[in-house]
Amino acid sequence: LHVLAGRIESRIQKFEERKIDATEAKQALEKAKTLVEDARVSLAEAKASVKNVLSGENPKDVFADAQKSVKPVVSHMKDAHAALVQSIVALKGNVSAEKNENAAPTE
Prior knowledge:
Structural class: mainly alpha
Helix content: over 70%
Number of strands: 0
Radius of gyration: 21 Å
Order of helices and strands: HHH
Largest sheet: none
Distance between the termini: 46 Å
Number of helices: 3
Oligomer: single chain
């Protein structure tokens, strides 16, 4: 997701250079970056939790505990992906609006 975020950030900069409003896309990108960072923190916590869980004796309980520790990571990543998609949609909307403004009226 970092690579995609970098590409979107580059595109936002190009839009701003062309004086196209990319505020909504920028906000969605920042939200995505925050969620990715939250996922990293959750992943580190999950790794530690899984190490502790693996020392348990009941495999069924161990698996359930490992699943619980990974769920926040998955949730953060899904939310980050949704925010990146939202950013892309906002940029596409701005491109469409610019094309409509620059289009010559037909009569």
